[in-house]
Amino acid sequence: MTSIRSRIPCLAALALTATSAHAGDVAQPASPTPAPPPETLTDDWFGAGSTLREHGVNLTGSLAQFYQGLAAGEGANDWEYGGKADLFLRLDGGKLGLWQGFGVSAHGELNYGHAPSAAGGTYVPNNMALLFPGVNDTLADLSLHASQQFSDSVTVMLGKINTVDLYAAGHEFSGGRGVELFQHVEFTGPISGITPPMILGGILSVKTKPAKFTLMVYDPLSQTMRSGFDDPFGEGITFNGSVEVPSNFFGKSGKHFFSAAYSTQDGVDFSDPYLLLPTTPQPATTDDRWYFAYAFEQTLWRDASDPKKAWGLFGQASISDANPNPIGWSALGGISGTSLIPGRENDKFGGGIFYVSFSNGLKDGLRLAGIPARDECGLEVFYNLALAPWLRVTADAQVIRPPVDNRDTAIVGGLRAVVSF
Predict the structure, then answer these.
(1) pLDDT band per the 50, 70, 90 thresholds, residue 204
(2) Fewer beta carbons under 10 A from the terminal one: N or C of the chain?
(3) Quick one: how many helices (H) and strands (E) in the chain?
(4) Which helix (H) or strand (E) holds 8?
(5) Torsional sign, CA 360, 362, 367, 372
(6) pLDDT in tens, 371-406
(7) Considering all CA atoms of the chain, what is the largest pairwise distance in Å, rounded to the nearest integer?
(8) Which of 253, 226, 255, 234 is nearest to 243 (CA)?
(9) Cβ atoms within 10 A of the Cβ of 196, count?
(10) Contact, 208 vs 223, CB < 8 A?
């Protein structure tokens, strides 16, 4: 039988394997072949990029490198080096001679090296980019899905879908997959406990004049490092619906997300008082889980001559069943955008705070096992320096209160360099 303390990371993992992607954040794939960055290291694949896109093939890629470690707090102060290579492929069925509105999207990810994900005794990971498909090894994964746009307002997606990408597509001032803006999970794909980072299923998106409606139906089991067809829906089914409503307060654009999810997946029953005792042969389970969230983004300033230059506010508040969901409720907020420093208009900045309240049943079980548990909260600030259109270097700092009462506040620092190909 494993010891009490050796089972704590397993319980924590229940909270860390589900990344929220509001259903309303799904980007309408109206154009399966978006334009490439204005300049890349390879000069748009050595000049061949435009020809490929004309024939329905759009290819983009990047390499992000991280040097990150614990600057203050309890634990190892060793700094770690790791990297992430991303390759995106989008095929336009109409240009390929198939039929209009059809598209195929693939995202290949390769992680290598190491990351101090739990530096200072924290539970919620501080680096989204190196969290999936994994760290402390060389790991690769692939998401692949097809989409069909039936009109300007109705789109269907089917396949193995990366929900971290969906979150990034729906957010301007947060998101970014951990390679563009923030790095902490709460600002790049807030934990929901009900939506995995990689899903197998389908998404229906209907865009109307007052709002956009989205329905997601998927296997509740994370498909990270899986083919997606190993016993599909063997652990239940999840339904996730949302509404995205645009706003225009004081003449500035914004949007509001209302989302709800329900899953039939079973989970550990945190009300079991003997859950963490070494004499417990098998943890009790409970069925079903639910989740509600409200989120917003609000533009504060936008350059009339270059709409890509802007800064604004973002925030989210969520609540769940808290059993079997290991997260009871959470809240976050912040500000980010392009720099207002003269001559540095292409730089980016950001700052945010978060609070994650773990399930009361989980905390009670930890306390019964002699571990003084509490909620986790913290803040992150970053400055993203554009050294070239294809090269960005980011300085990042996070201050986090660990979820164990007797642990000191952790300060995690880091540098990130991203090259666009």
Answers:
(1) very high
(2) N
(3) 7, 18
(4) helix 4-16
(5) negative
(6) 888 999 999 999 999 999 999 999 999 999 999 888
(7) 67
(8) 255
(9) 23
(10) no
